[in-house]
């Protein structure tokens, strides 16, 4: 599944020209996590996907991606009504936030249940960074859920992965750091706050 997501992400990033710009990280980000515990950074290898080409590095410089397959009991509905899958989703969100914090990026989770479509989930704070001037064409296409983690409450958004690919472009991600600068009134590029 991770390989398929890497192919789809590569084709989206390259506007259909290449399918080899992303690949699975070593040990699903485990190498970076282990090195982080030793106080050593591992650039571009947090989460489940890394860039394999200089052309796609801007994605992993700005977004850490976690990929989840299966988990039939992990329904997003459980985050709303307190079903048993809420624990799984909260663990995934904590994992994504830790990896993003360690890498200095924002985060996203792609999940696919068996015989269902891929869903992408991300912090709501990512939307104005990717689409700062209202360029988002279909805001009604997102769901929003308030998630109460033990240490913080946050609002997550999501949609079908294919819809996300239509709403955002490579340029939106590449401009993410510059957009954050404008929002903060800074004169130099700053990555988004990793606490989202």
How would you describe this structure to a colleague?
The protein has 196 residues and is an alpha+beta fold. 39% of the residues lie in helices and 20% in strands. It has nine helices and seven strands. The strands form two sheets. The chain has a five-stranded mixed sheet. A two-stranded antiparallel sheet has the order 1-2. The radius of gyration is 16 Å and the shape is globular. Mean pLDDT is 79; it is low at 29-36 and 178-196.
Brief rundown of the structure:
The protein is of the alpha+beta class and 196 residues long. The protein has 9 helices and 7 strands. The longest helix is centred in the middle third of the chain and has 19 residues, at 85-103.
Strand content is 15-25%
Rg over CA atoms, rounded to whole Å, is 16 Å
Order of strands across the biggest sheet?
3-4-5-7-6
Could you state the order of secondary-structure elements as H and E? HEHEHEHHEEHEEHHH
Please give the share of residues in helix.
25-40%
Low-pLDDT residue spans: 29-36, 178-196
Span from first to last CA? Answer: 26 Å
Largest sheet: 5 strands, mixed
Number of separate strands: 7
- Structural class label: alpha+beta
What coarse outline follows from CA principal-axis ratios? globular
The helix count comes to 9
Oligomer: single chain
Mean pLDDT: 79
């Amino acid at each position: 599944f991770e390989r398929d997501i890497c192919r789809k992400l590569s084709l989206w990033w390259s506007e259909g020209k290449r399918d080899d710009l992303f690949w699975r990280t070593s040990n699903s980000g485990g190498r970076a996590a282990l090195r982080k515990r030793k106080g050593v950074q591992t650039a571009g290898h947090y989460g489940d996907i890394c860039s394999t080409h200089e052309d796609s590095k801007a994605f992993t410089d700005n977004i850490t991606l976690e990929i989840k397959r299966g988990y039939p009991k992990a329904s997003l509905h459980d985050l709303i009504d307190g079903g048993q899958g809420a624990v799984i989703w909260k663990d995934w969100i904590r994992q994504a936030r830790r990896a993003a914090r360690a890498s200095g990026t924002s985060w996203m989770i792609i999940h696919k249940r068996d015989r269902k479509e891929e869903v992408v989930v991300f912090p709501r704070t990512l939307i104005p960074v990717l689409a700062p001037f209202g360029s988002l064409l279909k805001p009604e296409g997102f769901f929003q859920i308030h998630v109460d983690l033990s240490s913080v409450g946050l609002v997550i958004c999501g949609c079908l992965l294919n819809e996300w690919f239509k709403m955002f472009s490579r340029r939106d991600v590449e401009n993410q750091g510059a957009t954050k600068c404008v929002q903060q009134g800074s004169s130099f590029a700053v990555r988004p706050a990793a606490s989202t």
